[in-house]
């Protein structure tokens, strides 16, 4: 099941050139672009692992594509996304976020039902991937 | 990510108008500005003109589908200190930007300290950080030969060189690297790093300025700050340049700039001490002969004053010279 999170996720996978154009848009708006990766695709997993620092002072998006490719070398079997922070409201707010790399196979999610008091059923989702320990997922 | 465009517009053109492309790209402005603002440097200007022509033709060829590869644009600027290498690098960044070979056209100036780390594992991230900052523009490495220190085989400079070479090759579309330094030491640097020599297409040599050019530069510098030399001062300045050239640490235009800075200091001092009553703009902006004449260059320079200082000290102690 293809993970549909963030921008452009219903489009075909972005090429390096597409990534560059999108990142350049963010840079031209004055947002700090950074690269993150994870192997836990739960939709509420907000904070992914950072790949290096946010790129505050790079005027050109070629640097972002370079970092994405460096990250792919190390974490090519995981999800990688590019996010753009806007600091102008006084707090760091994510303006853009899109997945640029995904594992070869994405097993998807299952529904978990929990029996509560008085026959209440609580529902949640769990990725099949996270049943493996960290580092062994998507291997 | 591409818009639907008329196929006729995207088909390669069958003929190009180089003159129109020249006008359109704004290259003429850069070349004219170069001629106007830089004094002397004839061979450098000629090389830049040739490079601009090559790039313009190459761009036209690419539009017609004749060439596909990005040409190698990395350069090396060799010359003595103060011959305008950084200034020309700035102009070159502008030129490449206007021709569309770099996307942003900014210049990032670095030296060894900005690239090479202090401990194991520090160099690679540091060099990459600088390279990322320079992407879309021009990376200017001043005194590049310091990167290579053959006397210390565990020097981290070698690591920076390897990363540089890799990025210069793989990210040719993203950034242009200009190495600068003194001619003889750069030659040694290139002969011990053959990878660099083969990746650099344009070697530009910066000749020293002659005395007349330096005087012209001095007047141009003063003019920019709304100062001027009176006739006596101009003659003194010419003498100063001739005398300074023979002394140690002569750095062409930089020596001239430093001399003028000190002359301005002396002028301010003189006005402050002598002035009785209001001064007009003319007086405030004129450098006179005494302001220049007070320089120690006329007393034999740094070496001369040191020698005479030692002599004076010996005489004071009563020892024979």
Automatic annotation (TrEMBL), chain A:
Alphabetical list of InterPro entries matching this protein: RuBisCO_ssu (IPR024681), RuBisCO_ssu_dom (IPR000894), RuBisCO_ssu_sf (IPR036385)
Position of the signal peptide: none
Keyword RNA-binding in annotation: no
Highest taxon, organism lineage: Bacteria
Gene3D superfamilies per the UniProt record, alphabetical: Ribulose bisphosphate carboxylase, small subunit
Keywords of the record: Calvin cycle, Carbon dioxide fixation
CDD domains to which the protein is assigned, alphabetical: RuBisCO_small
Residue intervals of the Ribulose bisphosphate carboxylase small subunit domain: 4-103
Matches recorded under SMART domains: RuBisCO_small
Function: RuBisCO catalyzes two reactions: the carboxylation of D-ribulose 1,5-bisphosphate, the primary event in carbon dioxide fixation, as well as the oxidative fragmentation of the pentose substrate. Both reactions occur simultaneously and in competition at the same active site. Although the small subunit is not catalytic it is essential for maximal activity.
Protein family (similarity comment): Belongs to the RuBisCO small chain family.
Subunit structure: Heterohexadecamer of 8 large and 8 small subunits.
Note: The basic functional RuBisCO is composed of a large chain homodimer in a 'head-to-tail' conformation. In form I RuBisCO this homodimer is arranged in a barrel-like tetramer with the small subunits forming a tetrameric 'cap' on each end of the 'barrel'.
Stated name of the protein: Ribulose bisphosphate carboxylase small subunit
Organism (species): Paracoccus maritimus
From TrEMBL, chain B:
Region described as Disordered: spans on this chain: 301-321
Source organism, top-level taxon: Bacteria
Family, as annotated: Belongs to the CbxX/CfxQ family.
Encoding gene per record: cbbX
Organism lineage string: Bacteria, Pseudomonadati, Pseudomonadota, Alphaproteobacteria, Rhodobacterales
Residue ranges of domain AAA+ ATPase in the record: 71-210
Protein name, entry field: CbbX protein
Listed InterPro entries: AAA+_ATPase, AAA_lid_6, ATPase_AAA_core, CbxX/CfqX_mono, CbxX/CfxQ, CbxX/CfxQ_RuBisCO_ESX, P-loop_NTPase
Origin species: Paracoccus maritimus
Keywords: ATP-binding, Nucleotide-binding
Electron transport recorded as keyword: no
S-adenosyl-L-methionine recorded as keyword: no
């Amino acid at each position: 099941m293809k993970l549909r999170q963030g921008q452009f996720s219903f489009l075909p996978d972005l090429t390096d050139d597409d990534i560059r154009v999108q990142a350049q848009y963010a840079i031209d708006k004055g947002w700090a672009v950074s690269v993150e990766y994870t192997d836990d695709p739960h939709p509420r997993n907000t904070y992914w692992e950072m790949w290096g620092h946010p790129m505050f002072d790079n005027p050109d998006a070629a640097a972002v594509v370079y970092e994405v490719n460096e990250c792919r070398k190390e974490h090519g079997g995981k999800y990688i996304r590019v996010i753009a922070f806007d600091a102008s409201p006084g707090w760091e707010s994510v303006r853009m976020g899109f997945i640029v790399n995904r594992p070869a196979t994405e097993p998807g999610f299952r529904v978990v039902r929990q029996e509560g008091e008085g026959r209440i059923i609580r529902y949640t989702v769990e990725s099949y991937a996270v049943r493996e320990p960290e580092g062994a997922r998507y291997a | 990510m591409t818009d639907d465009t008329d196929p006729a517009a995207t088909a390669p053109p069958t003929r190009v108008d180089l003159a129109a492309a020249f006008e359109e790209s704004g290259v003429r402005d850069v070349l004219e500005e170069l001629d106007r603002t830089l004094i002397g440097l004839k061979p450098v200007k000629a090389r830049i003109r040739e490079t601009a022509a090559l790039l313009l033709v190459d761009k036209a060829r690419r539009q017609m589908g004749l060439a596909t590869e990005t040409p190698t644009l990395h350069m090396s600027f060799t010359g003595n200190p103060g011959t305008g290498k950084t200034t020309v690098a700035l102009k070159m960044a502008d030129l490449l930007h206007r021709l569309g070979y770099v996307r942003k056209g900014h210049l990032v100036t670095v030296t060894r300290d900005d690239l090479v780390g202090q401990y194991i594992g520090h160099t690679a991230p540091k060099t990459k950080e600088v390279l990322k900052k320079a992407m879309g523009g021009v990376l200017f490495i001043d005194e590049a030969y310091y990167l290579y220190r053959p006397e210390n085989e565990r020097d981290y400079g070698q690591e920076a060189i390897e990363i540089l070479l890799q990025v210069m090759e793989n990210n040719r579309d993203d950034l242009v690297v200009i190495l600068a330094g003194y001619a003889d030491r750069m030659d040694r640097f290139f002969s011990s790093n053959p990878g660099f020599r083969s990746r650099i297409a344009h070697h530009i040599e910066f000749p020293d300025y002659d005395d007349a050019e330096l005087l012209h530069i001095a007047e141009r510098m003063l003019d920019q700050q709304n100062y001027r030399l009176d006739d006596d001062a101009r003659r003194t300045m010419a003498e100063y340049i001739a005398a300074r050239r023979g002394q140690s640490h002569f750095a062409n235009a930089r020596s001239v700039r430093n001399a003028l800075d000190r002359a301005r200091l002396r002028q301010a001092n003189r006005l402050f001490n002598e002035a009785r009553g209001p001064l007009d703009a003319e007086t405030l902006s004129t450098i006179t002969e005494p302001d220049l004449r007070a320089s120690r260059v006329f007393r034999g320079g740094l070496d001369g004053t040191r020698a005479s200082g030692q002599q004076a000290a010996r005489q004071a102690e009563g020892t024979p010279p």
